[in-house]
Design brief:
The complex is a heterodimer of chains A (about 200) and B (about 325).
Chain A (H helix, E strand, L loop, with lengths): L1 H29 L2 H17 L7 H22 L4 H6 L20 H10 L3 H13 L3 H8 L3 H21 L4 H24 L1
Helix pairs in contact in A: 1-2, 1-3, 1-6, 2-3, 3-7, 5-8, 6-8, 7-8
Chain B lengths: L2 H15 L5 H13 L1 H21 L5 H11 L13 H21 L7 E5 L5 E4 L5 E4 L4 E5 L7 E12 L8 E4 L3 E14 L4 E14 L7 E4 L3 E4 L4 E4 L8 H4 L1 E8 H12 L2 E3 L8 E7 L3 H12 L2 E5 L2 E5 L1
Parallel strand pairs in B: 5-6, 13-16
Antiparallel strand pairs in B: 1-4, 2-3, 3-5, 4-5, 5-7, 6-7, 7-8, 8-9, 8-10, 10-11, 12-14, 15-16
Helix pairs in contact in B: 1-2, 2-3
The chains are: A mainly alpha (about 200), B alpha+beta (about 325).
């Protein structure tokens, strides 16, 4: 009985810990929040039914992200979306090309960052997003995507280069970006204290 | 620097940020950063993009609602019925079960309150309760919530450290019970740190009452900006210092001309490591900002900023001249 409630608790813990990140990851494929949530929930139900909880913590995280990706791709294939071919074609030439004129200038740091992310070629974006959302190691990312560690590193480097160029070309100096993000964080997180005391 | 050199340093930077660089690569990077302001800015931009892309990619979801759905289909789901099943046998068993159950029902009409326990095992956890109350548990904290929460008094139990943002309802007061104390809200946001031997409350907003369990009539009232500690002689008010108090939740440490002794205290709390500062250096002012950086990186930056020697051993950080 104690064991059963232990398992229930750790299942709940794992769910709460990873749910938002997994949905955000699924969204990068599906571009639909509702469908993304459905996919992630189904993966968790499978985890429960197949008693995958015995895996270690690191392994379960790897499993969850990999399973979510696979399920997203299957779903896309069903819907015959264009994206899947680009993602699967590892050697596709994803040149660093900026589409700056299509982007409006913004001072909102969140918009700026997501605009910068939009500049990335699909394959590159996939690797980069998985890394930043999941926090998996390069080796785990390589295993999850079925590519080599070297490719992961190359794509990560490419992603950062493109985004740097974008941020610089959009005339936003590091200082401004820094201040904006800082300000946003401060307000959100410790704003309560600061407002009341100063 | 040559093109290939730049590419190489970028690779090292990314490995470093992902916590996968070797000690040698770390040194190469430090040297490169020290070479020029341009290099330093380049690194800072990379660092910032690295941190902020993750945050920007996260979409808001209603985890609570989703959990309800998944729970109903997993842990709440009755175990599958076995197929070896004889109706006759079942009926005879059912009859006797009914008798026993009837007796139980007669004696125990009022089921005891059951508690659901949430343990923040692997990291901080945020809970949203049905009344809109938000509780953020620091890693290691444990919260017990009665299954009838909201009907009658709203009372929860806490071990460890948590930040409470209470939806005020004068009709249904909210209180937190620890091993030693009771904190009652009077419409509020507050931080409660309960270590077993010491309880500490810091009020961010509104008002709370704070009392020892054993003598709950000797309560003290705390307003926004006030803090009190309960150790061995009833609750005592103390000077509140709220800077970096919530760093465990925000993952941001901010020092603004802060004395090194306080920096040491905050680092020790955030990284769960002992920090040693000799008497003579305690008042050294520090201005810095760290956003969830690895301890090694923080130490490197502090070295540069203060000009002091900062050594990291296995379980201790030591500052020296």
């Amino acid at each position: 009985m104690d064991m059963a409630s232990d398992i229930k608790e750790s299942f709940e813990g794992i769910f709460r810990q990873h749910y938002q990140r997994l949905c955000s990851y699924a969204y990068t494929f599906l571009k639909d929040m509702e469908v993304s949530e459905d996919v992630v929930q189904e993966v968790f139900i499978k985890v429960w039914e197949n008693q995958k909880l015995q895996m270690g913590n690191d392994k379960i995280k790897f499993y969850l992200f990999t399973a979510v990706r696979n399920n997203c791709l299957t779903l896309l294939q069903k819907n015959k979306k264009h994206l899947i071919q680009e993602l699967k074609d590892e050697d596709a030439v994803d040149e660093i090309r900026l589409r700056t004129n299509a982007v409006e200038k913004t001072t909102d740091p969140k918009t700026l960052i997501s605009n910068a992310l939009q500049q990335l070629p699909p394959k590159c974006r996939e690797v980069f997003m998985l890394s930043r959302i999941s926090g998996l190691t390069y080796q785990q990312i390589a295993d999850s995507l079925g590519i080599s560690v070297k490719t992961v590193e190359n794509q990560m480097g490419k992603a950062i280069s493109v985004m740097k160029v974008f941020v610089k070309e959009n005339g936003i100096s590091l200082v401004v970006l820094h201040l904006l993000l800082f300000e946003e964080n401060t307000q959100r997180i410790i704003g309560v204290c600061i407002e009341k005391w100063f | 620097m040559s093109m290939s050199g730049d590419l190489n340093i970028q690779e090292i930077m990314l490995r470093y940020l992902n916590g996968e660089s070797t000690a040698e690569e770390g040194e190469v990077l430090q040297r490169w950063i020290g070479e020029s302001t341009a290099n330093k800015e380049e690194f800072e931009l990379t660092h910032r993009l690295w941190n902020d892309t993750a945050e920007a990619a996260l979409l808001s979801v209603d985890t609570e609602k989703a959990w309800e759905k998944v729970r109903a289909r997993t842990i709440e789901k009755p175990a599958p019925v076995r197929s070896l099943f004889s109706w006759k046998k079942a009926l005879s068993i059912a009859a006797s079960v009914l008798l026993v159950a009837g007796a139980f029902y007669y004696f125990f009409q009022y089921p005891a309150v059951s508690w659901s326990v949430t343990l923040a095992e692997n990291g901080n956890r945020q809970l949203l309760l049905s009344d809109g109350t938000r509780i953020t548990l620091r890693k290691g904290a444990q919260l017990s919530l009665p299954n009838n929460y909201g009907s009658g008094e709203r009372q929860v139990k806490l071990k460890g450290e948590a930040y409470f943002e209470i939806t005020h309802d004068a009709q249904i007061p909210f209180s937190v019970v620890t091993d030693r104390s009771i904190v009652r809200d009077i419409g509020t946001a507050f931080l409660l740190q309960s270590s077993g031997s010491v309880d500490k409350v810091t009020v961010m907003e509104g008002e709370v009452s704070f009392a020892e369990k054993s003598s709950s009539n000797k309560l003290i009232t705390l307003r926004a900006g006030e803090s009190a500690i309960l150790e061995n002689k009833g609750p005592q008010k103390e000077k509140a210092d709220t800077s970096n108090l919530m760093s465990w939740q925000s993952a941001v440490l901010i020092f603004n001309n802060t004395m090194l002794s306080k920096v040491a205290h905050d680092l020790s709390d955030y990284y769960s490591i002992e920090v040693e500062v000799p008497e003579a250096l305690q008042t050294t002012p520090v201005t810095a900002e760290f956003r969830n950086e690895p301890l090694e990186q923080v130490i490197k930056e502090l070295r540069m900023l203060t000009g002091l020697k900062v050594e990291l051993t296995e379980n201790k950080v030591v500052f020296t001249k």
